[in-house]
């Protein structure tokens, strides 16, 4: 079903486009840096959680936020791709839909990982306690989270047909995923109704793993975090392959 | 028959875009679908290319069913889409390399094949520029090269010269003619330019409102109108009297002039002019495919680009990466 060369072809296209769109690369760093420096140090002056300053506490959350936005945006971008003929060229190729999906997905993960890499380096510079081992472990967690989030974006994007839906996704998917993930707060101190929503959010488990890796503050067992992310990713990849198979022209 | 359709139908809600289409296309021919915007040409091609599911009916391309064996159909065909579909941040060569990988062209022949198609469409000097800096005609040539790089059995061309300037259009026609001669490839093209269908196609199906109105080669289609066209500019023409003349096939008045189809114009023009009385001017011209279209549908093929010109769409595509 999955043809390595086709996956590579689709990925290569995405990667080359990414490297040549400098605006996209630059803009993906601006908002996380603002969050980290302005929001983190502004609040950090007065708040500390789990014995670390707020700026350090939200660092894993900001990493996750940046990853979430880059990943889901990348996925729903195919609403635009579909309006034009870029995607058609790939869809008429004699290649399995799952290969196209995986190639696209890895393209999005690559964007997200480039961003994560730079934010991790920035983290070292602003004094986040990262060792080489936690640095690599964090990248692994971020990669897995981006697989889940890019796949989610692609599933949404391939099932939506009009561009107005883009805003709906931002308001009804991306922001809730972010706010109900514990990226900015400690999930154990929430009122029960709020923590229930948080537990249903796959991103919560990515944030939890990351906070465990970087700050040694983890709410759930590691195996549970990984299981949720892996199962969610597999379900999204399956749905995505089905959606790509059904994707049609509008005329 | 390399392509056959059997009552091929596509509905979008209550609107029937393609209505029980039955066509047979022979191997090696250049087949044209001619009709106004909205006639169902692109919908037909999209179904034959497996990117749109038929509502009912079936179609076979190269012996494979488009619904049941889409990937077999996909490996038999090449497509040049109506809208620009090359990646504008990749170079011409990179676009072709990615295409080669998707179509599993063996690594050993890839480089040579890319070189061949690039020179076939005359893009040697610009192959390593990003296609963002290409002109509309160059993009079109690149898309042609890409469409035939994997030696498909059938090449589909959806409005291959839409929105191009006349000179570029003629260049593209030359390439298409050269290809059909040298590669002996079956080609199916859609167009709303009559001269394009006339110039390139062995057989032409005139489409309107989802149906094929008439299908034949260009010469026979024109014969069906029944003569040549004489346009007379005159006041108060007596249409009844003109229609009664034995050599007149039809006569219609249209903004201050009368358009008459007459048989054997060389012999009968003099007679016609004697009978009609005082005229301001006379123009004789051969039948065009537009006249054929009017003859069958009572409407004209409008040449307007209602869906936005090629450049508008390129501009839009640039905004959206």
From TrEMBL, chain A:
<feature type="transmembrane region" description="Helical">
    <location>
        <begin position="226"/>
        <end position="245"/>
    </location>
</feature>
<dbReference type="InterPro" id="IPR051784">
    <property type="entry name" value="Nod_factor_ABC_transporter"/>
</dbReference>
<dbReference type="InterPro" id="IPR013525">
    <property type="entry name" value="ABC2_TM"/>
</dbReference>
<feature type="transmembrane region" description="Helical">
    <location>
        <begin position="101"/>
        <end position="128"/>
    </location>
</feature>
<protein>
    <submittedName>
        <fullName>ABC-type multidrug transport system, permease component</fullName>
    </submittedName>
</protein>
<feature type="transmembrane region" description="Helical">
    <location>
        <begin position="134"/>
        <end position="156"/>
    </location>
</feature>
<keyword id="KW-0812">Transmembrane</keyword>
<dbReference type="GO" id="GO:0140359">
    <property type="term" value="F:ABC-type transporter activity"/>
</dbReference>
<keyword id="KW-0472">Membrane</keyword>
<feature type="transmembrane region" description="Helical">
    <location>
        <begin position="57"/>
        <end position="80"/>
    </location>
</feature>
<dbReference type="Pfam" id="PF01061">
    <property type="entry name" value="ABC2_membrane"/>
</dbReference>
<keyword id="KW-1133">Transmembrane helix</keyword>
<dbReference type="InterPro" id="IPR047817">
    <property type="entry name" value="ABC2_TM_bact-type"/>
</dbReference>
<dbReference type="GO" id="GO:0043190">
    <property type="term" value="C:ATP-binding cassette (ABC) transporter complex"/>
</dbReference>
<feature type="transmembrane region" description="Helical">
    <location>
        <begin position="25"/>
        <end position="45"/>
    </location>
</feature>
<feature type="transmembrane region" description="Helical">
    <location>
        <begin position="168"/>
        <end position="185"/>
    </location>
</feature>
<dbReference type="InterPro" id="IPR000412">
    <property type="entry name" value="ABC_2_transport"/>
</dbReference>
<feature type="domain" description="ABC transmembrane type-2">
    <location>
        <begin position="23"/>
        <end position="247"/>
    </location>
</feature>
TrEMBL record, chain B:
<dbReference type="GO" id="GO:0005886">
    <property type="term" value="C:plasma membrane"/>
</dbReference>
<dbReference type="InterPro" id="IPR003439">
    <property type="entry name" value="ABC_transporter-like_ATP-bd"/>
</dbReference>
<keyword id="KW-1003">Cell membrane</keyword>
<dbReference type="GO" id="GO:0043215">
    <property type="term" value="P:daunorubicin transport"/>
</dbReference>
<dbReference type="GO" id="GO:0016887">
    <property type="term" value="F:ATP hydrolysis activity"/>
</dbReference>
<feature type="domain" description="ABC transporter">
    <location>
        <begin position="3"/>
        <end position="234"/>
    </location>
</feature>
<keyword id="KW-0067">ATP-binding</keyword>
<keyword id="KW-0813">Transport</keyword>
<protein>
    <submittedName>
        <fullName>ABC-type multidrug transport system, ATPase component</fullName>
    </submittedName>
</protein>
<comment type="similarity">
    <text>Belongs to the ABC transporter superfamily. Drug exporter-1 (DrugE1) (TC 3.A.1.105) family.</text>
</comment>
<dbReference type="Pfam" id="PF00005">
    <property type="entry name" value="ABC_tran"/>
</dbReference>
<keyword id="KW-1278">Translocase</keyword>
<dbReference type="InterPro" id="IPR025302">
    <property type="entry name" value="DrrA1/2-like_C"/>
</dbReference>
<keyword id="KW-0547">Nucleotide-binding</keyword>
<dbReference type="InterPro" id="IPR017871">
    <property type="entry name" value="ABC_transporter-like_CS"/>
</dbReference>
<dbReference type="InterPro" id="IPR003593">
    <property type="entry name" value="AAA+_ATPase"/>
</dbReference>
<dbReference type="InterPro" id="IPR027417">
    <property type="entry name" value="P-loop_NTPase"/>
</dbReference>
<dbReference type="Pfam" id="PF13732">
    <property type="entry name" value="DrrA1-3_C"/>
</dbReference>
<dbReference type="InterPro" id="IPR005894">
    <property type="entry name" value="DrrA"/>
</dbReference>
<keyword id="KW-0472">Membrane</keyword>
<dbReference type="GO" id="GO:0005524">
    <property type="term" value="F:ATP binding"/>
</dbReference>
<dbReference type="GO" id="GO:1900753">
    <property type="term" value="P:doxorubicin transport"/>
</dbReference>
């Amino acid at each position: 079903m999955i043809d390595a060369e086709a996956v590579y072809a689709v990925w290569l296209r995405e990667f080359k486009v990414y490297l040549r769109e400098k605006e996209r690369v630059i803009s993906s760093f601006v908002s996380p840096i603002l969050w980290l420096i302005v929001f983190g140090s502004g609040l950090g002056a007065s708040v500390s959680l789990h014995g670390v300053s707020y700026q350090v506490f939200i660092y894993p959350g900001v990493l996750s936020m940046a990853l979430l936005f880059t990943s889901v945006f990348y996925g729903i971008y195919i609403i635009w791709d579909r309006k034009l003929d870029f995607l058609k060229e790939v869809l008429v190729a004699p290649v399995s839909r799952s290969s196209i999906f995986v190639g696209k997905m890895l393209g999005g993960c690559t964007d997200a990982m480039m961003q994560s890499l730079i934010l991790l380096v920035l983290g070292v510079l602003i004094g986040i306690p990262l060792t080489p081992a936690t640095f690599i472990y964090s990248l692994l967690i971020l990669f897995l989270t981006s697989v889940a989030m890019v796949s989610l974006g692609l599933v949404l994007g391939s099932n939506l047909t009009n561009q107005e839906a883009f805003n709906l996704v931002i308001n009804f998917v991306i922001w809730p995923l972010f706010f109900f993930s514990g990226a900015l707060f400690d999930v154990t101190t929430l009122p029960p109704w709020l923590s229930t929503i948080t537990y249903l959010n796959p991103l919560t488990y990515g944030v939890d793993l990351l906070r465990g890796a970087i700050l040694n503050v983890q709410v759930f067992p590691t195996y549970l975090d990984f299981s949720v992310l892996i199962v969610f990713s597999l379900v999204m990849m399956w749905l995505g392959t089905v959606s790509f198979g059904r994707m049609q022209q509008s005329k | 028959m390399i392509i056959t359709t059997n009552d091929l139908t596509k509905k979008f809600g209550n609107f029937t875009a393609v209505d029980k289409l039955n066509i047979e296309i022979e191997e090696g021919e250049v087949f044209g679908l001619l009709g106004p915007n909205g006639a169902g040409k692109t919908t037909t091609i999209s179904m034959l290319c497996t990117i749109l599911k038929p509502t009912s009916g079936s179609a076979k391309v190269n012996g494979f069913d488009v619904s049941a064996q889409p990937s077999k159909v996909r490996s038999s065909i090449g497509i040049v889409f109506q809208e620009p579909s090359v990646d504008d941040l990749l170079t011409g060569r990179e676009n072709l390399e990615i295409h080669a990988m998707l179509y599993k062209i063996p690594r050993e022949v890839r480089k040579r094949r890319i070189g061949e198609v690039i020179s076939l469409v005359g893009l040697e000097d610009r192959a390593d520029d990003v296609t963002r800096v290409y002109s509309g005609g160059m993009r079109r040539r690149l898309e042609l090269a890409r469409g035939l790089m994997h030696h498909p059995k059938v090449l589909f061309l959806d409005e291959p010269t839409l929105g191009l300037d006349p000179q570029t259009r003629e260049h593209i026609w030359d390439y298409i003619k050269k290809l059909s001669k040298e590669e002996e490839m079956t080609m199916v093209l859609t167009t709303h330019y009559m001269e394009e269908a006339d110039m390139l196609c062995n057989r032409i199906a005139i489409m309107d409102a989802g149906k094929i109105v008439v299908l034949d080669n260009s010469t026979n289609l024109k014969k069906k109108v029944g003569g040549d066209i004489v346009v007379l500019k005159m006041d108060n023409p007596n249409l009844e009297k003109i229609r009664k003349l034995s050599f007149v096939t039809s006569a219609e008045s249209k903004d201050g002039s009368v358009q008459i189809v007459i048989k054997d114009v060389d012999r009968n023009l003099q007679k016609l002019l004697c009978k009609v009385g005082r005229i301001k001017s006379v123009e004789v011209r051969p039948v065009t495919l537009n006249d054929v279209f009017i003859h069958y549908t009572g409407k004209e093929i409008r040449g307007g680009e209602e869906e936005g010109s090629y450049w508008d769409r390129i501009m839009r595509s640039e905004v959206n990466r």
